[in-house]
Specification:
The protein has helices at residues 35-40, 94-115, 126-132; strands spanning 2-8, 14-20, 26-31, 53-59, 72-76, 81-85. The model is unreliable at 135-142 (pLDDT under 50). It has a six-stranded mixed beta sheet. A hairpin with a 5-residue loop joins β1 (2-8) and β2. It is of the alpha/beta class and 142 residues long.
């Protein structure tokens, strides 16, 4: 699965993680680091309209009986994670699905372009390329 963290949704909320599966399935994961973090969160149900499966991800020591039975459960530590309880499927409208897929792609591309700035493409500095070639002799740089 391809994952994006901190994705802003159409309702203005920011989801901890949205995963895109090989068949285009969209899984949302809300990470809770503690019982207090879980108890103060009143917004998680607003994510259900933006995914086909919803999971809480919690640490190993988290009391699992606090997590509602009608959502998925992932238990994780610093090194690995496991789905303890699968999430029931949530139906998305075609329009919402399309909008989410476009948003996923645009967000991923935007983050990638920030990571690969114009001056670091393929590890080469544009300044170095420009200084080693004449602007007139290189049709790519004008």
């Amino acid at each position: 699965m391809a994952c994006l963290t901190e994705l802003r949704l159409g309702n203005g909320r920011r989801l901890d993680l949205l995963a895109l599966g090989p068949k285009g399935e969209l899984w949302a994961v809300e990470v809770k680091s503690s019982v207090e973090d879980f108890r103060v969160d009143q917004k998680w149900q607003s994510y259900l309209d933006y995914c086909e499966r919803f999971f809480f991800a919690v640490p190993m020591h988290f009391p699992k009986d606090l997590i509602p039975e009608d959502v998925g459960l992932i238990v994780a530590d610093r090194f690995e994670a496991a789905i303890i309880r699968p999430s029931p499927e949530i139906k998305l409208s075609a329009a919402r699905r399309k909008k989410l897929l476009i948003s996923f792609g645009q967000t991923a591309a935007g983050r990638l372009s920030k990571f690969y700035s114009k001056e670091n493409v393929l590890g080469l500095s544009l300044k170095r390329i420009a200084s080693s070639h004449s602007y007139r002799s290189n049709p790519i740089i004008k």
